[in-house]
Amino acid sequence: MNNPFGVLEFLQWDHSWNNHKYSSAAELEKVIKLMKEAGVGWVRMDFLWQDIEPKEGEFKFERYDRIVDLLARYNLKVLGILNYSVGWAVASKEWNCPPKDNAVFVKYAVKVIARYKDKIKYWEVWNEPDSAVYWPAQDGLKSYCALLKEVYLAAKKTDPDCKILNGGLANGLGSINNLYNNGAKGYFDILNLHFFESPLHKGGIKALVAYPKLAREIMAANGDEHKKIWITETGCPGVKPGVRTDNWWIGDNPDEREQAVWLKKIYTGLLKNKDVEKVFWAFFRDCSGHWKNGVDYFGLVRWDYSQKSAFKSYKECSDEWKR
């Protein structure tokens, strides 16, 4: 449980829109074995509402059961994300729109938590609710905090031992202030943050390492200095020489060597902070044309499962921590 090394990986992806990333049990086991080899302790993955309750009141858990059981077999802990929408529950029918009625989302969340409470104790409510990409009707987190409160109370009734994380915040210190300003203090157990810097930018690592320290000041000002911080997304592309793709959102794409060096700097810098309990690299495996830019190359292993230099760096950092 103390292992601070996590990864974000889309183990649930077997859809046309993600090129059927994991279409067989053999592929899932192959990637999970590689995670174990790298020293991964935690896997962050979605429990997509659209997969689990495609029709109101009809719950389908078979695929997620297989994934959770396989991760447990390899002693990998799970941070489950309760997220996104299903067409029947939202007015716009879009996957990223919050539900018309929070109660139907809470019902789905409770079903998931109850089913896996013997194997999963950590749950994140939505992903990046402060981003218009994942929560289109931005209102300073007001509507998100209302949902977070309802899920938190229901989750604790369902499994009093579970821990709830806010949806990873992606837009800086202002989002942390909005979380507190909307009364969410008592409705998350761990502060969950996302932040990225480019290894190609001078001073990037200083800015990245400083961010949780600044977040801690806001937490302390709100009486939350006892809570830990999890960084559930950070990383950068590692693009193999000769591969042509558009740049990621920060700028030029780093190559695989630069990615490996950056990973070591991130884990070395962030884990010196006693308030940062876990750091999740995004992602474990490259994607195949999903984002159509450098983000497809965030992985520690390539699409064909071959290991990048960053895989070795991750393993070295994990081995050093174990010593």
What would the keywords be for this entry?
single chain, TIM Barrel, 9 helices, 8 strands, 37% helix, 13% strand, globular
Strands, count: 8
**Mean pLDDT, as a whole number?**
97
CATH superfamily (homologous) name: Glycosidases
Number of domains: 1
The radius of gyration over CA amounts to: 19 Å
CATH topology: TIM Barrel
**Biggest sheet strand line-up:** 5-4-3-2-1-8-7-6
Topology:
Blueprint: E1 5-8, H1 25-38, E2 42-48, H2 49-52, H3 62-73, E3 77-83, H4 102-116, E4 122-125, H5 142-158, E5 163-166, H6 173-181, E6 191-194, H7 204-221, E7 229-234, H8 256-270, E8 276-282, H9 309-322
Parallel strand pairs: 1-2, 1-8, 2-3, 3-4, 4-5, 6-7, 7-8
Helix pairs in contact: 1-3, 4-5, 7-8, 8-9
Give an overview of the whole structure.
α1 runs parallel beside α3. The protein has a single domain (5-322), classed as TIM Barrel, CATH 3.20.20. The mean pLDDT is 97. By secondary structure, the chain is of the alpha/beta class. The protein has nine helices and eight strands. The radius of gyration is 19 Å and the shape is globular. Strands 5-4-3-2-1-8-7-6 form an eight-stranded parallel β-sheet.
